Amino acid sequence: MPSPHRRPFFLLREELERLLDALRGSGHVCIGPQVREGAIVYDRLDTSVELPHGWSDRQSPGEYRLHRTGSPRCFAWASGPQALKPLSFAPEEVLWRALRDPDGGLRFNAVEPPAPSLAVIGVKACDLAALAMLDRHFAGDAPYQARRGGLLLLGVDCHHPAATCFCRSTGDGPALTGGYHIGMTELDEGFLLWSSGDTGEEILASLTLPEASETQLERANQALEAASLGQTRRLPGPEPGRILFDSLDHPAWSRLAERCLSCGNCTAVCPTCFCHDPVSEPALDGHESPQVRRWDSCFNEGHSLLHGRAVRGEIKLRYRQWLTHKLAGWQAQFGRSGCVGCGRCIAWCPAGIDLIEALKSIAEGRL
Predict the structure, then answer these.
(1) Which residues, in sequence order, are bridge partners of residue 39?
(2) What is the pLDDT of residue 366?
(3) Residues 85 and 138 in one domain
(4) Helix boundaries (H) for the chain
(5) Quick one: DSSP state of residue 304?
(6) Distance of CA 312 to the CA centre of its chain
């Protein structure tokens, strides 16, 4: 919710198209959540009708299911398999090309990435927190910064966390705290809207909206409180990173490895994982060799190759690397854990491995 010193505006549900028109009028292509093949994903939004009105999600270890509700709401879900990562850190892109001149010399040309102006509506607090961490990691990365600079973000308070969510214990939700241009809270009859910065303020000013009522503010705050208290999962102890570094030889790692498929699903859906693999792809005619960057995962054996030998050849070592880096190594790099509590790694693990339960088994000395 916005500062208590500034009352948000109110937009009726049937007027949502006005907001999208204002975003397009500011030169942006609208991106929003939509139902695609049994999941809620971000895609181009041509009309507000395409938003997931009346849909919600049910998540548990190894399970993600959508179901219809009788609600008119379009943001009554926790998280889909995507976050903002694909919009700023492309799954695959050409960084530069090596070109052979007719005289046999070589030239190296940087590739300018596409940087469309995108207005992304319906971003949850955990994903805004994840984007802030990617911003720090890719601070000097030109392709990332080009895409990131084109994003206008409309965050929405999360009133419907899944059973797998634990953003309250990481401090990253369910309420919006920053990182957005326009903030939103959804009620049955419409939306509370407020700006954060000049860009969002100009867009909202163009809509000439009334202020939200005291009753609407109270209902929004009550929904946030219920969403926060409804989360049952939480990271164990005040310093899970220290626990992990002190337990590198714990037998629980072997038990986890017996279940883990090393498929990399958890890192693919994680909004903060940034591992990638640089690959040269020489053209068949020998005149050009693009340097491609692709998403990679520390669960792939080849990711740990050193002089042709995998340093982490066992699944146990790869799972340990992922969890200790995410929750412990990041503390040294960025001053905080690399987990925002979105729970995606739990829901999208085909083996149903629960990160929270894995941590508990190590912290409490259980197998």
Answers:
(1) 36
(2) 45
(3) yes
(4) 16-25, 85-88, 125-137, 142-148, 167-170, 198-205, 214-229, 240-245, 252-259, 265-269, 315-324, 330-334, 344-347, 355-363
(5) G
(6) 27
CA neighbor of 160 nearest in space, from 71, 253, 46: 71
Q: How many domains does the chain have?
A: 2
Return the beta strands (E) in the chain as ranges.
9-12, 29-36, 39-44, 55-60, 63-68, 92-100, 106-110, 118-123, 151-156, 182-187, 190-195, 276-280, 288-295, 305-306, 309-310
Contact (Cβ atoms closer than 8 angstroms) between residue 205 and residue 177: no
269 and 313 part of one domain: yes
**Which pairing describes strands 39-44 and 55-60: parallel, antiparallel, or unpaired?**
unpaired
Q: Is residue 331 in a domain?
A: yes
Flag whether 235 is in a domain: no
Residue for token pair 């049952």: 232
Going by pLDDT thresholds of 50, 70 and 90, the confidence category of residue 367 is very low
131 lies in which domain range? 9-89+107-229
Asked if 217 and 302 sit in the same domain, the reply is: no
290, β-bridge pairs: 97
Does 4 fall in a domain?
Answer: no
Q: What is the pLDDT of residues 30-85, one digit of tens each?
A: 999 999 999 999 999 999 999 999 999 999 999 999 999 989 999 999 999 999 99
CB 236 within 8 A of CB 360: yes
Which of 208, 229, 250 represents a domain boundary (last residue)? 229
The structure's pTM equals 0.93
200 and 314 co-located in one domain: no
